[in-house]
Design brief:
Radius of gyration of chain B: 34 Å
Distance between the termini of chain B: 75 Å
Helix content of chain A: 55-70%
CATH superfamily of chain A: Winged helix-like DNA-binding domain superfamily/Winged helix DNA-binding domain
Oligomer: heterodimer
Distance between the termini of chain A: 40 Å
Low-confidence stretches of chain A: none
Order of helices and strands of chain A: HHHEEHH
Number of strands of chain B: 23
Number of domains of chain B: 4
Number of domains of chain A: 1
Number of helices of chain A: 5
Structural class of chain A: alpha+beta
Helix content of chain B: 40-55%
Mean pLDDT of chain B: 82
CATH topology of chain A: Arc Repressor Mutant, subunit A
């Protein structure tokens, strides 16, 4: 079930999880996306998307250590499953394929 | 993590409730972590806002996601829980608009009233001030003994402030400030700006830094340092065209070229609780727009001993108020005598309390009134549901007989009420949103934080909560009664309309409604009488058709002030056609902007070198003041223009009564005593006596006052009496001032009458709000009485029919209905009277010219109530008396 291509937010989340490696817990993933895209992300939205990815078995989650500044709540760490890696690879491939031979200037030229 | 930068608990709870267990700890933990990072980087307020934004998005998205994710289970669960009840209830309600509509209306009104009041209470009393860890910000007030005057609270002197700043480790940051009005001159205009002179750590104390540039350093705050200023965001935008190169730019302040070093954030807000009295127009004038270093004046000699400062401090986190006070006291006691006072103690008060104390009692009273209205709503709903439950008795009995459990039946009965409460709270919040702006606009000037009053998630949550409570309280009565009866009893009674237990319950509910609304009506009447009483007080002057404005002479450093400006201005104004009289005073009634009261001496004796004499209000006036103000001249004459400042004085009637022991006033000598550099006396001769007038509030006790020539004063309030609309003179007067001396700004033009009326804004506001609540209570209770009596009449129709058939006449029947209808009303009114004597006891401080047990107010309120109750009882009584016995007996 599910769509062939990942949603934009799903895509961003998967890449962010990859980038964070062993340190991929919710706040870090979201922070990574916010830092790189410069946009504020709704925590609930991100968590809903993570929950969806988990349900599709594209990522797996485990609870980590508890820290004081989280009010004693454990961090929840995510990593890509092999299905998730395959899906992300396919999704990235289709994106790259679409961009092949185009530069981002093309967007601006068209909009003028 | 410090306890003050914790995430909002309500928000956290909401998220926890909304998020499925698997995700909960991860999401909430992330939010906590991010929150504490934002606290570090952008402050607690920004972090709280961010957290609420996150909560809102969770609220909007999470539930839908959860249900969409497990559609089958979710639907099953809703259906199993109460979905069918709700659907059933909704269907039932739409079929019975006779129940649903009135119930909806009372909820709408009740929730709206509570939401409006709660948004005031929340913004002013509950929310922390808009500074990081605001509860640690305190103000320090010395308690001093003064020769001849005993113990009194004082404002701190510069010496106090310095000693605390240097020697108290308990206050990591501590700043002194004073309010000051400074003249800003730009190419566009010359305007007086409300500002503060602050010591360097002022921004540290509040924990708010400029968004552009910097705050003051100790170097800025040293005498002789280059002049610098910090400006508000508003000032930057409105007066300086939001100049992007503002930092470092020089602006003209009081004729001094001053470099702007900082711009405060847009949402920064500071309200000097004492500065407010200087303002004479709208509330915004109490806000501060300019900050200058306190050291602009060098603090030496007597001026360092002059109690003119405020001290704002941040106490160490976790330090108790008592410990802070002990520390401040130890330092202050070590100072020894300052002037002729000795500091014996210090009061430490949080800034929040300074702001809230003056309004706490009134807002609490309003809040209580709101809850009383809610209680009436609940009682009303109770009666309505009782009626409705009777109509459903067959259905309930059948359901019970078929095996529906008690809980299930209760839930069914409550589902309707909750549905109505939900719809009613929605309507109530909408209504509140519509009226809130208007209510805020008429809020008294002295209400701090009024700009932050708005309907938000907290208010909405409170509104829903209030509605749910009302629905539960109102719904439980009939719900329990429905299931309490045994099934056979219900089934046998089901077909009939007569009601046994219900009537008593109903009467009790009506009596409760009446009791509460009589209490509210009495409280409202007392407040209204206070307002009317104050409003009808004669001020002792005539403010109608008088324009006022004020001026503070701009001085160029090193040059003497232009003291000719005021006399020339007045002389020219008097030549304007339509001007009847014009004058000036340092103490304009109802615009408290004046100096302290100097020591005075009456007669020709020399002052005692060791003991201070009595202090008294001395007003410096410019000739023409008494005539322009329309104050009565009782004896002699008033001050006149002469070439030299005159040594003539006038006094008021209270002075003559309290200080002259029947001796003739005219010709008596009166002097002001200065003890700053040896003892010197300035003597005046009384040439006239004028009538008493109210200086700061209507209905105040007249104080003795002396009026002397104010020609050497550098600040003045002007009053101009016109033949027509006084405001029309504003442009002309501004033009005259510009021609005479373009460096002198005139400010705060206002109609005097407006200032006088504004002085009652507090009484007007609270009395109109309480009045509105009283009216709502009256109408709701009347509706309750009407509904109950109508119901009883329909239930007793067979009985009335039989009575009529047996020969009772119309009048007997009507009397029967009226008396049985009014019995609970009278009982309730009696309880309400008792309740009012208890409830209004705490209102003493809010009342004027009326005692909390004023019998005529009680009589009036009860009279009005009974009148309305009779009106509510009459229609059903008429219906009962006119019925046709044959018709009734046939249907049963």
């Amino acid at each position: 079930m599910g769509r062939k291509v990942l949603g934009e937010l799903e895509h961003l989340l998967l890449v962010a999880i990859l980038r964070r490696g062993d340190d991929a817990y919710g706040a870090a993933i979201i922070g990574e996306i916010e830092r790189r895209t410069g946009q504020e992300l709704s925590r609930a939205g991100a968590y809903i998307a993570l929950q969806r990815l988990e349900r599709k078995e594209l990522i797996s989650a485990r609870d980590g250590e508890q820290t004081a500044d989280r009010g004693g709540r454990p961090r929840r760490y995510f990593e890509l499953t092999s299905a998730g890696r395959a899906k992300l690879d396919a999704s990235a491939a289709s994106l790259f394929a679409m961009w092949e031979g185009l530069s981002r200037d093309a967007i601006e030229a068209d909009s003028q | 993590m410090s306890p003050h930068s914790r995430s909002p608990r309500l928000a956290r709870r909401l998220i926890e409730i909304l998020t499925p267990r698997a995700q909960r700890t991860g999401l909430v933990g992330d939010l906590e972590e991010a929150h504490s990072q934002i606290v570090q980087s952008a402050g607690a307020a920004a972090a709280r806002r961010w957290y609420w934004r996150q909560t809102l998005s969770t609220l909007l998205r999470m539930p839908a996601e959860q249900w969409a994710a497990r559609p089958a289970r979710a639907v099953m669960r809703i259906a199993r829980a109460s979905g069918s009840d709700i659907r059933f209830a909704a269907r039932g309600l739409t079929k019975q608009p006779g129940f649903a509509l009135p119930a909806l209306c009372i909820f709408t009104v009740g929730v709206a009233a509570n939401a409006v009041v709660f948004s005031f209470v929340d913004a002013v009393l509950l929310r922390s001030l808009p500074y990081p860890n605001a509860e640690d910000v305190v103000m320090l007030w010395p308690r001093v003994t003064e020769a001849n005057r005993g113990e009194l609270m004082s404002t701190p002197t510069y010496r106090h402030a310095m000693a605390w700043a240097e020697r108290s480790q308990e206050f990591p940051s501590l700043a002194a400030y004073e309010s000051a009005v400074t003249t800003l001159r730009t190419p566009a205009r010359t305007a007086p700006i409300n500002g503060l002179n602050i010591s360097a750590s002022w921004n540290d104390v509040l924990g708010v830094e400029p968004i552009r540039g910097r705050s003051f350093t100790t170097a800025d705050d040293t005498p002789g340092a280059p002049p610098v200023a910090i400006i508000s965001f508003d000032l930057w935008h409105n007066e300086l065209n939001a100049d992007p190169a503002i930092i470092g730019r020089a602006i003209d302040l009081d004729g001094t070229s001053t470099a702007v070093v900082g711009v405060m954030p847009e949402d920064f807000w500071f309200f000097d609780p004492y500065m407010f009295f200087r303002s004479s127009g709208d509330r915004s004038t109490a806000d501060v727009h300019l900050w200058l270093p306190l050291h602009r004046r060098s603090w030496e000699g007597w001026i360092a001993d002059y109690p003119s400062l405020r001290v704002l401090a941040r106490r160490a986190p976790g330090l108790s108020t008592a410990a802070a006070r002990d520390a401040a006291e130890a330092v202050a006691r070590g100072l020894g005598p300052i002037g002729d006072t000795e500091t014996i103690g210090v009061e430490v008060k949080s800034l929040a309390d300074e702001l809230r104390e003056p309004v706490r009692a009134q807002l609490t009273a309003l809040f209580a009134a709101g809850l009383l209205v809610l209680a009436i709503v609940a009682a009303n709903l109770g009666s309505l549901s009782l009626t409705r439950a009777d109509g459903r008795r067959v259905e309930m009995a059948v359901r019970a007989a078929l095996g529906a459990g008690r809980a299930r039946l209760l839930r069914l009965a409550l589902a309707e009420n909750l549905l109505i409460a939900l719809a009613g709270s929605f309507g109530g919040l909408l209504l509140a949103a519509v009226v809130l702006d208007t209510v805020v606009r008429i809020a008294p000037r002295a209400l701090p934080l009024a700009h932050s009053i708005h309907l938000d998630a907290r208010v909405a949550a409170f509104g829903v909560l209030v509605a749910a409570l009302g629905a539960l309280a109102g719904g439980l009565v009939p719900a329990f009664r429905t299931v309490a009866d045994s099934i056979p009893t219900q089934l046998t009674r089901a077909g009939r309309t007569e009601d046994v237990g219900g009537n008593r319950t109903r009467s009790i509910l009506v009596a409760a409604e009446v009791a509460i609304s009589v209490t509210l009506l009495i409280a409202a009447t007392l407040m209204l009488r206070t307002f009317v009483d104050l409003h009808s007080q004669e001020p002792g002057f005539d403010a109608e058709s008088v324009l006022t404005f004020q001026s503070s002479l701009t001085t160029v450093p090193g040059e003497p002030p232009n003291l000719d400006f005021y006399p020339e201005l007045l002389r020219t104004i008097q030549t304007i056609p339509g001007v009847v009289a014009a004058g000036g005073t340092t103490h304009l009634p109802f615009s408290e902007w004046g100096a302290g009261a100097p020591e005075i001496i009456i007669g020709d004796a020399e002052p005692d070198p060791d003991t201070r004499g009595e202090r008294m209000q001395v007003h410096w006036i410019l000739p023409g003041y008494v005539a322009a103000a329309g104050i009565d001249v009782l004896q002699g004459e008033t001050l006149k223009w002469s070439d030299e400042p005159t040594t003539n004085a006038i006094v008021n009637a209270a002075f003559v009564e309290q200080h002259l022991d029947g001796q003739p006033a005219l010709g008596t000598s009166v002097g002001t005593v200065s003890r700053s550099e040896g003892i010197s006396v300035t003597r005046f001769r009384i040439v006239g006596v004028i009538g008493n007038y109210a200086q700061s509030s209507l209905g105040e006790k007249p104080q003795p006052r002396i009026f002397v020539d104010g020609r050497d004063k550098v600040w003045m309030h002007f009053i101009v009496r016109a033949q027509g609309e006084p405001a029309a003179l504003t442009a002309t007067i501004r033009g005259i001032a510009r021609d005479l001396d373009p460096a002198q700004p005139l400010g705060k033009f206002a109609r005097w009458q407006y200032l006088v009326e504004e002085s009652l804004s507090s009484e007007r506001f609270y009395s109109s709000l309480l009045g509105a609540f009283g009216l709502i209570a009256l109408l709701l209770a009347a509706a309750g009485v009407y509904g109950t009596v109508s119901y009883t009449v329909s239930a007793r129709l067979p009985e009335f029919g039989i009575r009529k058939a047996l020969g009772a006449d119309d009048r007997t029947i009507a009397r029967l209905v009226v008396s049985s209808g009014l019995a609970p009303v009278l009982a309730g009114a009696l309880v309400g009277l008792l309740g009012a004597t208890a409830a209004t006891r705490s209102m003493g401080a809010l009342l004027h010219g009326t005692s909390p047990t004023d019998p005529s107010s009680y009589a009036l309120a009860v009279g009005v109530f009974l009148g309305v109750a009779v009106l509510a009882v009459l229609p059903p009584a008429r219906r009962a008396s006119r019925l046709d016995p044959i018709e009734v007996l046939r249907t049963d």
